[in-house]
Design goal:
CATH topology of the largest domain: Rossmann fold
CATH class of the largest domain: Alpha Beta
Structural class: alpha/beta
Largest sheet: 5 strands, mixed, barrel
Helix content: 40-55%
Distance between the termini: 35 Å
CATH superfamily of the largest domain: Nucleoside phosphorylase domain
Number of helices: 16
Strand order of the largest sheet: 5-10-9-6-11
Radius of gyration: 25 Å
Shape: globular
Oligomer: single chain
Number of domains: 3
Order of helices and strands: EHEEEHEEEEEHEHEHHHHHHHHHEEHHH
Length: 388
């Protein structure tokens, strides 16, 4: 299921009143959790601020992490940069979130997983542990991002901890660069009064990035049923909620599909083979949507060139002692030369000992034979089997 995370009930009112979404309260350790059976969609009121959002999201992800496919943080944000790019009422998609704790910046940042093909302008944001209501706040935070909020960083932190992809959309609610101490309460009142409008805009924005289909819960429980609807791999990936494909990945996948198709008994047969061996297992794995797509491309490449796959397995086996010692290895393009470029950082005497042990464990004759084509593909399956 997808999980919508919103700080306040006022910002969530359009979602909770929607007859199409049909959210109903869900019993949990605390109030504020709603579930739509029809769309397999959950909504959590996280409360305002990093601590509250972190605690509630972590508790829910800990209890239901096997069911949550994506976290979508929705809310309002203040404008730090006086620029025509940022106007009140606009919706922005967040790329990277930073955290300001009191008077210092946290060194960790978190990047969303699915902003490449966003219908909205994409930018960064600073999550502040306190409300940013003064121009002095603006001066401190602006070097890091043009927007400020209270919860995006917490969403990214929890999502990363539980290996769940996340994204964030923000409605621009106030101009921090114009604020001063005297009218800070007035700003809060205006934002509160505008909450119904912001909520509707967030709902409209949510539909743009996540078009819902009825019976989505059944499709999520049975990925095979989802795959059978599509004859073409790219069509399947576009409709799937388990993968996110960038423009460059689309080109790569189309190229691999065009190579595999003539070798199969047609599109249906190839899709049937891919869904059983690759698409369904990958769809059920944990990880970001992008990482699953990368794994899919790797497996397609293996199908296109099993010879290359066997070679790579043997090469990985022989160079494993060096990799375990954290040596950086590089080979010539297409392995034309029978040599290795090796890089290793020595900071302490024991690092030199570690490198020496790795070199002694490595069979460079076997590596040279591989690079000179002196190997048999049968060796790969047998050696990998022995290792397992």
């Amino acid at each position: 299921m997808k999980l919508i995370a919103i700080a306040h009930r006022a910002e969530a009112q359009a979602f909770l009143k929607s007859r199409d979404l049909a959210f109903k309260p869900e019993a949990f350790a605390f109030d504020g959790l709603y579930y739509s059976t029809e769309h397999n969609l959950a909504l959590l009121l996280t409360g305002e601020g990093v601590q509250s959002a972190t605690e509630k999201l972590a508790a829910l992800c800990g209890a239901k992490h096997n069911k949550i496919q994506e976290i979508i943080n929705l809310g309002v944000a203040g404008i730090l940069e006086n620029s025509p790019q940022f106007k009140l009422g606009e919706v922005k998609e967040i790329r990277t979130s930073y955290l300001s704790l009191g008077h210092k910046m946290e060194f960790k940042s978190f990047s969303a997983s699915s902003y490449d093909a966003s219908p909205f302008h994409v930018c960064d944001i600073v999550t502040s542990s306190k409300r940013a209501l003064k121009t002095s706040d603006c001066q401190k935070l602006l070097p890091f991002a043009p927007l400020v909020d209270r919860e995006t960083w917490a969403t990214g932190s929890v999502a990363t901890r539980f290996q769940v992809p996340f994204r964030s959309l923000k409605v621009l609610s106030d101009k921090v660069y114009e604020a001063d101490q005297e009218d800070s309460l007035e700003v809060c009142r205006i934002v509160k009064d505008q909450a119904p409008l912001w909520s509707q805009q967030l709902l409209d924005a949510f539909y743009k990035i996540s078009p819902l289909q009825k019976d989505a819960a059944l499709n999520n429980q049975n990925p095979k049923k989802e795959a059978l609807k599509e004859k073409n791999l790219l069509d399947f990936l576009e409709a799937s909620s388990s993968f996110h494909v960038t423009t460059s990945q689309k080109r790569k996948i189309k190229s691999l599909w065009d190579i595999l198709l003539p070798q199969s008994k047609g599109e249906k047969a190839l899709m049937k083979e891919l869904e059983d061996s690759t698409l369904i297992p990958l769809g059920l794995e944990k990880g970001t949507l992008k990482s699953k797509t990368s794994k899919l491309i790797e497996r397609l490449e293996n199908l296109v060139s099993p010879f290359k796959t066997d070679f790579q397995k043997l090469l990985d086996k022989e160079t494993n002692p060096l990799k375990e010692a954290r040596c950086k290895l590089s080979f010539s393009r297409l392995y034309e030369r029978d040599s290795i470029d090796l890089s290793f950082t020595i900071r302490r005497p024991k690092d030199a000992v570690k490198l020496q042990e790795a070199l002694e464990k490595t069979d460079f004759t076997a590596i040279s034979n591989l690079l000179n084509g002196k190997w048999n593909s049968k060796e790969s399956s047998s050696s990998c089997g022995d290792k397992a």
